[in-house]
Specification:
It contains eight helices and eight strands; from the N terminus they run βββαβαβαβαααβαβα. By secondary structure, it is α/β, with parallel strands linked by helices. It has one domain: 3-Layer(aba) Sandwich (Rossmann fold), CATH 3.40.50.1820. Strands 1-2-4-3-5-6-7-8 form an eight-stranded mixed sheet, sandwiched between helices. Helix 3 links the parallel strand 5 and strand 6. Helix 4 crosses helix 5. The longest helix is centred in the middle third of the chain and has 20 residues. The radius of gyration is 17 Å and the shape is globular. It starts with 16 loop residues before the first strand and ends with a helix. GO terms for molecular function: hydrolase activity.
């Protein structure tokens, strides 16, 4: 079995289509169609990680998206502006992810043969943060630009090794201050931004979630998911944590590892197929 970090550079078949959800170069999503050709296949919107930084993009989600397509899912790997790019970070990253989650399902329904069925958000690391956040926008104040009057039309969120507590990530200095780069400064000094950006501050989301996190994660401590899952359940959310003993940060996005069945199980659980 290859080391799981190899997934960051492993090649995958080209997407079946790329759609634009906005006018900017990074406002796009790569679509892969279900190999079995089934009508109304579930759509998995993939939000890639990389600590919100521009040197990481959606390309490394190719292997997982291709594997999901082989199992009868439609997938949409979204791109978004990231820190280090013009307009990335606060607030552009949030603008893009909100817009993608709200518009890509309709674009996929037109492009995927047979249309799509239920929608699930799946995010890894910083993408897990963004997926949890996107599902929680009905909790934002009405004055916030990303506010929704009701929760988005998704069946649930699968968050893989997510940065689920942004304020804590800032305090810990994860990845050399990545959370501070996203917010434009330390979270403690930007309480208004943090309150809008931290999914832990937006509970209950009213959207079911499954967190999959390895106990040996070297990049995002598993305590992030433990704390989020505990707080979400206390707030009344349907939230499950699948903690994988001895598993690191990248294994959960690698279809060649023993961790991958836990991801498939999380999707099945949310979609009611198991």
């Amino acid at each position: 079995m290859r080391p799981s970090s190899d997934v960051l550079t492993r090649s995958a078949p080209d997407p079946d289509a790329t759609v634009a959800y906005g006018r900017l170069p990074d406002q796009v999503a790569d679509l892969r169609f279900p190999r079995d050709g089934a009508a109304r296949a579930p759509l998995v919107i993939i939000v890639h990680g990389g600590f919100w930084r521009s040197r990481f993009d959606r390309a490394h989600t190719g292997p997982m998206a291709d594997d999901l397509a082989s199992r009868g899912f439609a997938t949409a790997a979204i791109e978004y502006r990231r820190v280090g790019q013009d307009g990335g970070g606060w607030p552009g990253t949030f603008d893009d992810v909100a817009r993608a989650v709200d518009t890509v399902p309709a674009l996929a329904a037109e492009a995927v043969p047979g249309g799509i069925g239920d929608v699930v958000l799946l995010g890894h690391s910083a993408g897990g943060h963004l997926a949890l956040w996107a599902a929680s926008r009905a909790r934002l104040p009405a004055s916030a630009p990303w506010h929704l009057a009701k929760p988005p039309a998704v069946r649930g969120v699968v968050a893989l090794a997510p940065v689920a507590a942004l304020a804590v990530a800032s305090e810990l200095g994860l990845s050399n201050g990545a959370a501070d780069e996203l917010l434009g400064g330390p979270a403690a000094g930007l309480p208004e931004r943090t309150a809008l950006a931290d999914p832990s501050a937006l509970l209950p989301s009213s959207i079911p979630s499954v967190l999959v996190h390895g106990s040996a994660d070297e990049a995002v401590p598993v305590e992030q998911s433990r704390a989020y899952a505990s707080a979400a359940r206390a707030a009344g959310d349907d939230c499950t944590l699948d903690e994988l003993p001895g598993v690191g940060h990248f294994a959960v996005i690698d279809p060649l590892t023993d961790a991958w069945p836990a991801v498939l199980g999380a999707l099945s659980r949310l979609l009611g197929t198991r």
